[in-house]
């Protein structure tokens, strides 16, 4: 095993070299390329100042030497082992542990590493928040679809998932911002950024003026959730009727919340919500029904209670941050969810037909025990593998989400870096994302070997 | 996995594998809907200038007939039209797939060369002149296209004086509203279907070609070639495609053809992996060994004997690949790194939340077009996989 890991680690070196070489070659071969001249182009400077700035850039980044030398120079700086230079740029020696220096960004004038260290946590926050949603939803839907192969739920969910998979993230983002964040419709969420300015001065946790109000909120939330769950357990006819009525009411309430209320809009919203919530009550999937209706009830209870408060409420940093994250996380969740639940379905299906599942059933085990104790555990294998490769993919996926919601993360940094031709930044971001991806692949393979005793790499 | 898949039509005697697969794909409703949407887009793309143009189709001035539209047709328009009619005639004549491919291919070269040499539309188009002359009564009669706006016909409007406000919501004059410069959204969308379709097909073809070539050589020769090839594949896989694309596009000029090549160049690695795995499996089989023993040249073994036996799963991947190529172009345009002035769905979608107001028509129509096109290719890919993959067919 350890020899395998070492071999894989060594094979990563040529790949990483190749990645940077490809990206460097693209930048060097582009018309205009990157030179000190192109960097200060468009700045209104005196000829003398221009010359001085050019000389400064040439000195700093070696932009006047041939591309091959520039690449080698960058490589030497970035790699942890390499030549060291003295004051006059002459080679002074060779060191194995000189530490790697990713250079200074052209645009920001700050060390690249510092910039990346600032941005990575934000992107990670976005992605780590969306992962639990992706997995819970995908496992719930995927397992259910596999056990009901060929029935309404399976056919319906796979058509729906394919549709969901085809919706471009930018369309979802734009629609969510447009309807739920702009002040032309419901101004429920903020349009951009990660927190409001005031939130920085707030305490971390939300707090209320009086204890009574907090208690009221708590009671209302719990009561709402209880009512939702109770409704979900009621006989079908009753619950569908009540829920449809509730949906209608909600639609009208939303219609009244518009800046320019319009009867047709309210009516169509009411019918739409009545259909959705009523349909939720109609479904046979008890877990889904209980969970979603409970959440809906809790949300409604909280909203109603909050309307009655006297406004002595401080949102707090945490709630503000979460409030900003709802829409971006929603965008990131749905695309990964569609992909993963298809994978879960295939894996569970494969194992349901396997011999050991048949044996377990023949032994007299309940179908649920077979499904969750035997089949599901074995179906987790492909999910483990994917999870290791998901993270670098999500880093790339957040490019769009971060651009739409103006979140200062890695994705936005990457777009800005290529747009401003910031060579050091572009090279470093590719190097880091490449490293992450390769590490992800390696971890996936190792997890596979740990989880499945049949796999060995010796 | 629907009912259609569980009871496949009985294979006809003497029918080729490809024809069987096609027949089975066509039994599925999803695939039919997808193909219908792509067909509609294709027709919109070919006849775009006749559907949406500010140049009158026909007009009569002082008793003389004239067609400004024909005068302003570009070489690309003429080539597309020629291709479409060749393909139509060959399809109606029930030509074989090979004859069809050859006919369309030679027509592409012929029409492409001839039209660039012969068709020279006037460099400058002033769309306003027609409306002014019509208003002044210079024309006896004018016949306009159904949507009387060109994609780059900015800031002017029919029947009203002065500048039309940009980003106006849909009204009687502009069915889908106007964009940020005041151009008609529907006209731009019709012309943008060309870019969407073209990028999808050409980029995927380039990626497929590269992938098959590199993957085939890797799988067949194995050894050192395989190790080097796999590093190359890994390099292109380890950088997220979107990021590589961004880098390419940001550092080169923005041109449609370059965009196609770049999207193709960044997405071949998946196909190469597929082909390599497939060829590694096929290499051991008897018919390849027999072909080798007969002393056939490498080219023949690789492309005549091995490739047709491994092409199935690759075609499925290619069909999903077209969808992701279209999506890639849309994302680039959305981020403002696409084509500069040419109409593109992604670039129009970008205008939906400009200047803090929400222009719902800019999100609904271009965004909807992207969604339906991507969905159509995914549906076709799904149906193709059900038809080709015998394992999934069972389930």
User: How many DSSP helices of chain A?
Assistant: 16
The portion of residues forming beta strands of chain B comes to: under 5%
* Helix/strand structural class of chain A: mainly alpha
Average pLDDT for all residues of chain A: 82
CATH class of the domain at 185-388 in chain B: Mainly Alpha
Structural Rg of chain B: 24 Å
Largest sheet of chain B: 3 strands, antiparallel
Enter the CATH topology name of the domain at 185-388 in chain B: MetI-like fold
**Total DSSP E strands of chain B:** 3
N-to-C order of helices and strands of chain B: HHHHEEHHHHEHHHHHHHHHH
Provide the structure class of chain B: mainly alpha
CATH class of the largest domain in chain A: Mainly Alpha
The CATH homology group name of the largest domain in chain A: MetI-like
Question: Biggest interface in this structure?
Answer: A-B, 58 and 52 residues
Main location (chain B): membrane
Family (chain B): Belongs to the binding-protein-dependent transport system permease family.
Keywords (chain B): Cell membrane, Membrane, Transmembrane, Transmembrane helix, Transport
Pfam families (chain B): BPD_transp_1
Topology:
The complex is a heterodimer of chains A (458) and B (395).
Chain A: H1 2-29, H2 36-39, H3 47-61, H4 67-78, E1 82-85, E2 91-95, H5 112-147, H6 152-166, H7 169-181, E3 207-208, H8 211-233, H9 236-256, H10 263-282, H11 286-308, E4 313-314, H12 316-352, H13 355-362, H14 367-404, H15 410-419, H16 423-451
Antiparallel strand pairs in A: 1-2, 3-4
Helix pairs in contact in A: 1-16, 5-6, 5-12, 5-14, 6-12, 7-12, 8-11, 9-10, 12-14, 13-14, 14-15, 14-16, 15-16
Chain B: H1 3-6, H2 17-26, H3 29-46, H4 48-51, E1 58-61, E2 64-66, H5 68-71, H6 75-92, H7 97-118, H8 128-136, E3 141-143, H9 185-221, H10 223-238, H11 241-251, H12 256-266, H13 269-283, H14 286-293, H15 298-334, H16 345-350, H17 360-388, H18 390-394
Antiparallel strand pairs in B: 1-2, 1-3
């Amino acid at each position: 095993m350890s020899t395998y890991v070492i071999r894989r680690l060594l094979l990563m070196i040529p790949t990483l070299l190749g990645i940077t070489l490809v990206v460097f070659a693209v930048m060097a071969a582009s018309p205009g390329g990157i030179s000190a001249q192109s960097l200060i182009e468009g700045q209104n400077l005196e000829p003398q100042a221009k010359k001085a700035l050019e000389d400064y850039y040439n000195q700093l980044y070696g932009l006047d030497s041939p591309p091959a030398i520039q690449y080698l120079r960058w490589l030497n700086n970035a790699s942890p082992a390499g030549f060291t230079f003295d004051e006059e740029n002459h080679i002074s020696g060779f060191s194995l542990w000189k530490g790697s220096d990713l250079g200074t960004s052209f645009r920001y004038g700050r060390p690249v590493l510092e910039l990346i260290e600032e941005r990575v946590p934000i992107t990670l926050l976005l992605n780590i928040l969306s992962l639990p949603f992706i997995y819970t939803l995908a496992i719930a839907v995927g397992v259910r679809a596999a056990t009901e192969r060929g029935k309404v739920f399976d056919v319906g969910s796979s058509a729906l998932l394919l549709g969901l998979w085809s919706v471009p993230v930018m369309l979802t983002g734009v629609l969510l911002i447009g309807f739920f964040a702009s002040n032309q419709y419901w101004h429920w969420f903020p349009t951009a950024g990660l927190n409001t300015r005031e939130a920085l001065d707030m305490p971390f946790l939300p707090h209320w003026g009086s204890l009574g109000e907090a208690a009221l909120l708590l009671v209302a939330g719990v009561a709402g959730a209880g009512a939702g769950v109770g409704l979900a357990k009621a006989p079908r006819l009753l619950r569908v009727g009540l829920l449809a009525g509730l949906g209608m009411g909600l639609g009208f309430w939303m219609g009244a919340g518009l800046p320019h209320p319009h009867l047709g809009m309210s009516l169509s919203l009411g019918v739409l919500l009545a259909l959705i919530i009523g349909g939720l009550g109609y479904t046979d999937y008890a877990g889904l029904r209980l969970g979603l209706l409970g959440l809906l009830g809790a949300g409604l209870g909280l909203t109603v209670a909050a309307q009655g408060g006297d406004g002595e409420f401080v949102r707090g940093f945490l709630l503000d941050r979460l409030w900003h994250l709802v829409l971006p996380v929603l965008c990131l969740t749905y695309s990964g969810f569609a992909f993963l639940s298809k994978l879960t379905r295939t894996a569970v299906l494969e194992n349901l037909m396997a011999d050991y599942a048949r044996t377990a059933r023949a032994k007299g085990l309940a179908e649920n025990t077979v499904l969750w104790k035997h089949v599901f555990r074995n179906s987790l294998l492909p999910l483990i593998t994917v999870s290791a490769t998901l993270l670098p993919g999500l880093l790339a996926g957040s490019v769009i989400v971060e651009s739409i919601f103006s979140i200062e993360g890695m994705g936005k940094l990457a777009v800005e870096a290529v747009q401003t031709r910031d060579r050091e930044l572009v090279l470093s971001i590719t190097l880091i994302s490449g490293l992450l991806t390769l590490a992800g692949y390696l971890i996936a393979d190792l997890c596979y070997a740990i989880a499945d005793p049949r796999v060995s790499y010796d | 996995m629907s009912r259609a898949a569980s009871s496949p039509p009985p294979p006809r005697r003497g029918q080729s594998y490809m024809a069987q697969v096609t027949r089975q794909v066509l039994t599925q409703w999803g695939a039919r809907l997808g193909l219908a949407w792509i067909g509609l887009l294709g027709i919109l793309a070919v006849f775009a200038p006749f559907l949406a143009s500010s140049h009158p189709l026909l007009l009569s001035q002082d008793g003389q007939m004239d067609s400004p539209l024909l005068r302003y047709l570009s070489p690309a328009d003429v080539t597309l039209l020629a291709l479409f009619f060749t393909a139509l005639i060959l399809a109606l004549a029930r030509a074989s797939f090979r004859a069809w491919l050859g006919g369309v291919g030679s027509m592409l070269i012929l029409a492409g060369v001839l039209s660039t040499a012969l068709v020279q539309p006037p460099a400058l188009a002033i769309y306003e002149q027609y409306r002014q002359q019509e208003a002044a009564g210079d024309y006896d009669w004018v016949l306009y296209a159904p949507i009387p706006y060109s994609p780059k016909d900015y800031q002017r409007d029919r029947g009203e004086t002065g500048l039309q406000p940009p980003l106006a919501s849909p009204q009687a004059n502009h069915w889908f509203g106007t964009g940020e410069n005041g151009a008609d959204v529907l006209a731009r969308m019709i012309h943008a279907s060309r870019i969407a379709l073209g990028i999808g097909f050409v980029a995927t073809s380039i990626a497929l070609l590269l992938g098959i070539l590199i993957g085939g050589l890797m799988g067949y020769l194995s050894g050192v070639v395989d190790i080097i090839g796999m590093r190359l594949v890994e390099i292109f896989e380890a950088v997220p495609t979107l990021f590589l694309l961004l880098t390419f596009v940001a550092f080169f000029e923005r041109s449609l053809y370059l965009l196609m090549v770049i999207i193709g160049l960044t997405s071949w690695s998946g196909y190469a992996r597929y082909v390599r795995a497939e060829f590694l499996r096929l290499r051991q089989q008897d018919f390849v060994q027999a072909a080798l023993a007969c002393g056939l040249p490498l080219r023949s073994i690789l492309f005549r004997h091995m490739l047709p036996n491994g092409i199935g799963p690759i075609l499925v991947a290619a069909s999903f690949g077209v969808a992701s190529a279209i999506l890639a172009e849309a994302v680039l345009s959305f981020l403002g790194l696409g084509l500069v002035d040419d109409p593109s769905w992604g670039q129009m979608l970008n205008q939906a939340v400009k200047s803090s107001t929400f222009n719902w028509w800019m999100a609904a129509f271009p965004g909807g077009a992207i969604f339906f096109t991507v969905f159509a290719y995914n549906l076709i890919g799904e149906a193709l996989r059900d038809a080709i993959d015998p394992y999934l067919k069972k389930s």
